[in-house]
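Changelog entry: the SnoaL-like domain-containing protein record was regenerated in this release. Current contents:
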Amino acid sequence: MRDPFQNPFPSDSARHAIWEMLVPRDIDAFLAADWSMVEHDFVEEGFIGIDAQKQVSPDRWRLAFPTLSAYRQEWLRQAKDFAEQSFAEDARTAIFTTTTLEDIEIEGEMALVRKKFDGGITKTDDTRDVLQWQTLYYCRLHQGRWKISGFTGYLPNPMG
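Regenerated structure tokens:
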């Protein structure tokens, strides 16, 4: 059984750095609703974010985040909304447990990263917030470190 808190790339420095950026740092920043914890993980120039709306067909996908600023606003809105909810379990553990990031394709200074969510988190009213989607991150080596230059997110998991 995998340890969801353990970086699966202990001897691969590039993949190790990407996993650290997209799993623990992203989760901790989201839970704190603190964009400053991740703001340096993005390449602002040319950033693009696609919202697949959990739809298989690209005809339904939207250019929801044409700029990093647009994505930051939505990220903060979601983080603040999440922070106002009450959970019956530890939110950090639940999110780590639902998150899998084990597939990182690197070609030169570019990387395609597959991050998947499959599970959920129980609320204090005994309902369950289902976390089941996946995101393709486009990363690149920028100014000496791996950063996110865009993504296609909220894809169905599994696809079609």
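The chain has a mean pLDDT of 97.
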